[in-house]
Amino acid sequence: MGVISTDSPDSAAARTARPVMARVPLARTVVFGAVALLLFLLVVLPFGWVLNNSFHDDLTGAWTLGNYARIFQSAELLEPLFNSLVLAVATAVIAVGIGVPLAWLVSRTDLPFRRSIRVLTLTAFVTPSFIGATGWILLAAPNSGWLNALWRSLAGAEAGPLLNIYSMTGAIFICGIYTVPYSFTMVSSALDEMAVELEDAAATLGSGTLRTMLSITIPLVTPAVIASFILSFIQGLTLFGVPAFLLTPTGIPVVTTKLAEFYQLFPPEIYMAAAYCMPLLLVTAMLFWMRRRILGRKQFVTISGKSRAGRRIALGAARWPAFGAALLLPLVSVFLPYAALLLVSLTRAWGQGLSWENLSLHWYWWALFGNSETHTAIVNSLLFSTLAATLCVMLGTVVAYIVERRLVFGASLFGAVTTVPIIIPGIVMSVGFFAAYTRAPLNLYGTPLLLVAAFAATFLPIAYAHGGSILKGIGPELERAARSLGAGEGRTFLSITIPLMGGGLLSGWFLVFIPIIRELSVAVFLITPKTNVMTTLIYNAKDGGNYEAVCAMSVLLLLITLALVAAAGPLTRLTTVRRTSRKSGRKTAPAEGVLPT
């Protein structure tokens, strides 16, 4: 049987002359080139300076391996490494152990007040961990903490402190509760984006709730769980504020506080500090290798573009006990520390206790009207965080897509470069940017671009991991179908992949925005009076012992961030409506495999 062509000679010639295929390689070259250039400027160049510095002697500047020999020969330098590993493991276990069950309760059960629990859990994300530590210092300092004072009033004045926040246990507690939102957000997002047809089919065939969860739900969210564990581990390993506030007063060193000591020496041992962060690279590389081994041969994806809300699992008599358990995290991470911060911020002098005579709005007036630095810091915090988070999500999503779909030879190298900043403490990352961009020809010191780039580079791995966890649950079949119908890679990515990723991109933006706006260690060494941010002002006030000013500025920072998060609600609902309309079977629905015309 022959095939009859209906094309005219003119139309065939026009189609032949149309350089469609020529444009695709050019577009690929431009995109990959831009991604490679950004990764080089944000990651390779600063990290290259840190690596180069690690092989130099601080006194002579000569090449040497003496820094590494000193690390492994000195018990004084090995102790902080061990303490950091203990803190990181405990933080990750707490974050995953609490965050994953909480995400399941909120996303898949009839837990009472699910929306409120979700909002309160994400509120803990807004709270910088060192501000949370400040709140708990007011509550659980061994001598002056309010909870210990209450305990003594009940048990007797001679009783010892019930709680001691200045301890490794206290640091683990603070790091853990303020890292839980990482796991909660990533796993709940995976559960919300997951198509539930397989779960419904299993239930129809007689599978029980537990069996369905073990055989279908958990495998589909495994990439998100593993990614959240790694991010939580690194968060505990690289935090600076909490150890500086809680462990330094007791003489318990960790890697980040030891790095700060190197910079505070005279002359500073910057090269030694660069070498001191390198053992962390081995630990983190091992974690990512294990993740690859676990997930490398397994692919749990859904090939349907449809998705709808899953069945709510009835908890029965366990509903209210489960609600009480879910409320414990907001209680210790939001209600108690927020109350302590607010009460102290409303006192003229904290040491005089709570009384009507001591209540005052003096420190809020000082922060809003009496201190011009606060105005500048608020604007800078919002502007820098917005720009850096947007850059993070755009670049991280594109890199995740390139890696997951293997669009170019050596795509895994893009992913490897993107994840490098996650193992570098913020202090060291800031030193790398200082070394790379405070010299000719760029000389960016004192400019907003330097801080935006440093923030974006530091949190790029979070955006990349989040985008990758979403893409792992989206099969490439619909993308292949679109390309077979003539759509280019760019059009397929924008009309198929991005809509399927849906609200996960928005949650990813906030997943990056909130850590950036609360970041301290990256900003400490890069700020100038014109580029100061709120976290550095708060840290400096705490370092000076002015708790009233610390609490007032902390409350203002929290209120501003919470207001922005609340304003994002309409945008989230708009995204949901658009996705719902696409999935309803309309002709514009890319999820059904129909290309818009």
Q: Mind explaining what this structure looks like?
A:
The protein has helices at 9-17, 20-54, 66-73, 75-108, 114-126, 129-140, 146-155, 168-177, 180-193, 197-204, 209-238, 241-246, 255-264, 270-276, 278-295, 319-345, 362-370, 372-405, 411-419, 426-437, 448-471, 477-484, 489-501, 503-517, 521-524, 534-543, 547-583. It has 597 residues and is an all-alpha fold. It has two domains: 78-252 and 321-345, MetI-like fold, CATH 1.10.3720; 350-597, MetI-like (MetI-like fold), CATH 1.10.3720. Helix 4 packs parallel to helix 9 (180-193), helix 10 packs antiparallel against helix 11 and helix 21 (448-471) runs antiparallel to helix 24 (503-517). Residues 1-24, 303-308 and 583-597 have low confidence and may be disordered.
Structural class: mainly alpha
Overall radius of gyration? 26 Å
What's the CATH architecture name of the largest domain?
Orthogonal Bundle
CATH superfamily of the largest domain: MetI-like
Tertiary shape: globular
Q: Extract low-pLDDT stretches.
A: 1-24, 303-308, 583-597
Strand residue percentage? under 5%
Distance between the termini: 32 Å
Per the CATH scheme, the topology name of the largest domain is MetI-like fold
Whole-number average pLDDT? 81
Biggest β-sheet description: none
Number of helices: 27
The tally of structural domains comes to 2
